[in-house]
């Protein structure tokens, strides 16, 4: 069977590297350097066997007459490609070893050829001949792989063509009695093929039940049945106990319990099926016809197991609190028997259909069986939809809300209803293959939807648990990265969203490339073929490099944050640089670090810059039109951080905005005003416009100037002395330069006097002017001097 073959290949892969290591060890051992070449790991018989298998598969593909007959050859070609890859991996170390040994011996000397020892010459000749044989076998393996890959492409094209032909082919309607005639009165040729098939089955069973083997056969059958019936319960109880006692209470435990139920069902079915296959085939190998049927039967068994396992896990009628979807209990109880009925019908009917394909029965018989399968499956699904509709209607009338996610549930219900109606119509007008295709796709959609729904819920709950500050994992991540709860929650949301997007993409691909009876290995091969297609190969991105790039990003960001904290808190405060310079250096370091991390991440992805010419061209156009301001501000930010015409902490004035520079970012600069508000000024304005930097020199003084208007009848000398003395007596006013009182204006409204004094810092001006004004008004009131009143409007 397919899984047995996969297991054998896995064992061979595990032991393959050991063989290569042994060869390398022998190469390093001087005692092994003899003239007798060691035998290669791949013989001519292995190559002949591969060629024979490929020729047989090509013959089977050429004789296929319907879509289903190409499923088994497609799987066998994929297995053949994996076997070729395994043998190639075994031969490659031998080629490298021989090349290294020939490199040690060196080329044949020309001048002193007669002086060379005969043992060395013989050894060189033997190694050269062996390397030629190894190179030829590698070339043969490469040719076989290319031919197998081309055959795989041809099979896909033929299957697509046959599917289109079968779906659009019109036959008799199921309402026509002659449609069912082949089932009730099969043709003589079909009867003969059926009897031959039954005889092959009887011979296989007779070999396993012959005297002397009956006891062992009975025991193996009993063990297989026990695993099938009781194995699931035991495994499910064990996994349930493990989830309850080892998983934290909450949504993650609920998701893990659902996954445990599915794993227990699949595992018990797999063991039972392997035991059953071993019991039947241990004495007499299966004929090619039975082997093809057994492979198809194994696929449909796993399909039925997935249906029952996923339904049991998601409905969870025995433990409603474990239920993942928000199904109401009445609806879950109504749905409970239908997955088992559907699985049983699929197991019997699809096995019957596969038997007609395996034995090569007539087209009339195949079409009749397909119509019967499509009719029964469509009727089951239609009955399910009707019961669900009645139950939901009764729940609405009773005042109980239906299941959550009503929009999605309604869409699924509507699509399924339309598909079933189309299926019945196709059966009535004679498009039997179309009806069967629709029913199969509905079943496949259920498996994909239920399986990936479970995985998405598990991913979301796992991220929520992993990054929760309430648990040890979240606390450890907080301590490691030095982040807060809010940032931890953001990381959880981002990872959960990215993971769900990836799962949805894989689900969509799986829905398109798979179908009922698809195996996990076949799905994995198809998904990797799409995800690793030409679009990603042109950028040289492979899945392994994605992990390296992610690690490079995480480690790089962590190192930059750690080094910046060390610079800000430990190194830069110990230097003689001013705080503005320290902040500028810290910002410049982080920006350069993030740029290097980005380059390292792209390098880890294996991105070739020559393949990014279209990106550079697009960016050039974008910069020329829409991104020029961003680029200009970016370049201006770099200039500000390097030339430092302004720095953090400077008091500047530009375009009517005056305040302290709080932060210089790559694109803009933050200026804090006197009222503590922040003004964002693009960096390009700081470079291109006139800017007043009050504190650039480090010794700038503030100027406290007041303008006061007095009536014309005042004593100017008295007022001058009062203003001057008030400035001189204030402790914040500097002695040098000394305060000055000037006669500014003479108008009919009054006399304007301006008094000016200097303070040690521009940041003190506003406060000092306020204090001086209070004091001057107090002195004027004491002296009986009033300020001029403004003229009436």
From TrEMBL:
GO terms for cellular component: plasma membrane. InterPro entries: DUF3772 (IPR022249), LSM_dom_sf (IPR010920), MS_channel_1st (IPR049142), MS_channel_C (IPR049278), MscS-like_channel (IPR052702), MscS_beta-dom_sf (IPR023408), MscS_channel_2nd (IPR006685), MscS_channel_C_sf (IPR011066). Residues 630-695 form the Mechanosensitive ion channel MscS domain. It is a multi-pass membrane protein. Keywords: Cell membrane, Membrane, Signal, Transmembrane, Transmembrane helix. Residues 587-628 form the Mechanosensitive ion channel transmembrane helices 2/3 domain. Residues 1-24 form the signal peptide. The chain crosses the membrane at residues 215-235, 256-280, 338-355, 367-386, 407-431, 437-456, 501-521, 541-560, 581-603, 609-627. Residues 139-199 form the DUF3772 domain. Residues 707-787 form the Mechanosensitive ion channel MscS C-terminal domain. It is found in: Cell membrane. GO terms for molecular function: mechanosensitive monoatomic ion channel activity. Belongs to the MscS (TC 1.A.23) family. This is Uncharacterized protein. It comes from Pseudomonas fluorescens. The lineage of its organism: Bacteria, Pseudomonadati, Pseudomonadota, Gammaproteobacteria, Pseudomonadales.
């Amino acid at each position: 069977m397919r899984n047995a073959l996969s297991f054998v290949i896995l064992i061979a892969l595990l032991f393959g590297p050991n063989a290569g290591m042994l060869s390398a060890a022998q190469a390093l051992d001087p005692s092994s350097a003899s003239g007798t070449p060691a035998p290669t790991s791949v013989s001519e018989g292995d190559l002949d066997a591969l060629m024979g298998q490929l020729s047989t598969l090509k013959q089977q593909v050429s004789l296929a007459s319907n879509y289903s007959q190409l499923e088994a050859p497609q799987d066998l070609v994929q297995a053949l490609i994996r076997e070729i890859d395994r043998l190639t991996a075994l031969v490659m170390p031998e080629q490298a070893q021989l090349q290294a040994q020939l490199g040690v011996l060196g080329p044949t000397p020309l001048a002193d050829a007669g002086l060379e020892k005969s043992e060395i010459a013989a050894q060189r000749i033997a190694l050269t001949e062996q390397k030629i044989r190894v190179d030829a076998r590698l070339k043969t393996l490469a040719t076989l792989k290319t031919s197998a890959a081309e055959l795989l492409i041809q099979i896909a094209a033929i299957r697509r063509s046959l599917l289109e032909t079968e779906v659009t082919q019109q036959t008799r309607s199921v309402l026509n009695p002659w449609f069912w005639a082949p089932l009730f009165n099969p043709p003589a040729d079909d009867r003969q093929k059926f009897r031959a098939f039954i005889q092959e089955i009887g011979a296989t069973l007779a070999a396993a039940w012959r005297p002397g083997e009956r006891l062992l056969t009975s025991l193996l059958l009993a063990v297989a049945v026990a695993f099938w019936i009781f194995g699931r319960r035991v495994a499910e109880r064990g996994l349930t106990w493990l989830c309850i006692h080892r998983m934290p209470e909450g949504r993650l435990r609920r998701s893990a319990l659902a996954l445990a139920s599915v794993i227990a069902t699949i595992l018990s079915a797999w063991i039972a099926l392997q035991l059953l296959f071993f019991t039947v085939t241990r004495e007499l190998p299966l004929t090619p016809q039975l082997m093809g049927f057994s492979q198809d039967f194994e696929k449909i068994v796993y399909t039925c197991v997935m249906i029952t396992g996923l339904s049991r896990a998601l409905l969870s009628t025995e433990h409603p609190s474990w239920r993942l979807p928000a199904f109401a209990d009445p609806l879950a109880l109504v749905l409970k028997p239908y997955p088992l009925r559907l699985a049983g019908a699929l197991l019997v009917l699809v096995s019957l259909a596969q038997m007609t394909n395996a034995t090569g029965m007539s087209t009339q018989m195949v079409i009749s069986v397909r119509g019967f399968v499509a009719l029964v499956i469509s009727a089951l699904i239609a009955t399910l939809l009707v019961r669900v509709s009645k139950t939901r209607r009764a729940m609405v009338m009773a005042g109980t809300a239906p299941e959550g996610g009503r929009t999605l549930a309604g869409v699924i219900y509507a699509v399924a209803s339309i598909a079933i109606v189309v299926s019945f119509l196709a059966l009535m007008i004679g498009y039997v293959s179309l009806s069967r295709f629709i029913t199969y796709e509905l079943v496949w959609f259920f498996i994909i939807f239920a399986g990936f729904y479970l995985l998405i819920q598990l991913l979301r709950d796992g991220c929520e648990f992993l990054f929760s500050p309430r648990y040890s994992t979240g606390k450890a991540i907080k301590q490691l990265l030095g982040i807060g709860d809010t940032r931890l929650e953001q990381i959880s949301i981002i990872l959960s969203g990215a993971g769900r997007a990836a799962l949805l993409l894989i689900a969509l691909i799986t829905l398109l490339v798979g179908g009922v009876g698809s195996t996990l290995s076949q799905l994995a091969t198809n998904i990797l073929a799409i995800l690793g297609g030409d679009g990603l190969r042109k950028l040289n991105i492979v899945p392994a490099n994605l992990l390296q790039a992610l690690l490079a990003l995480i480690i790089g960001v962590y190192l930059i944050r750690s080094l910046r904290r060390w610079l800000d808190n430990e190194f830069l405060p110990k230097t003689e640089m001013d705080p503005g310079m320290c902040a500028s250096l810290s910002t410049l370091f982080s920006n350069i670090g993030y740029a290097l991390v980005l380059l390292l991440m792209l390098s880890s992805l294996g991105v070739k810059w020559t393949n990014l010419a279209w990106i550079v061209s697009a960016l050039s156009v974008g910069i020329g039109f829409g991104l020029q301001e961003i680029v200009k501000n970016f370049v201006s930010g770099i200039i500000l951080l390097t030339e430092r015409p302004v720095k953090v902490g400077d008091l500047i004035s530009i375009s009517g905005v005056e305040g302290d520079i709080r932060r210089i970012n790559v694109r803009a600069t933050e200026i804090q005003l006197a009222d503590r508000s922040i003004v964002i000024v693009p960096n390009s304005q700081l470079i291109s416009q006139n800017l007043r930097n009050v504190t650039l020199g480090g010794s700038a003084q503030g100027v406290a100037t007041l303008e006061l208007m007095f009536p014309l009848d005042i004593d100017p000398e008295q007022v001058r002395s009062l203003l001057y003395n008030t400035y001189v007596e204030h402790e914040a006013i500097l002695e040098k330069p000394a305060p000055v009182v000037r006669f500014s204006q003479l108008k009919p409204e009054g006399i304007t006097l301006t008094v000016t004094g200097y303070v040690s810092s521009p940041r003190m001006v506003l406060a000092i002017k306020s204090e001086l004004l209070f004091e001057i008004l107090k002195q004027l009131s004491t002296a009986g001097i009033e300020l001029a009143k403004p003229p009436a409007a």
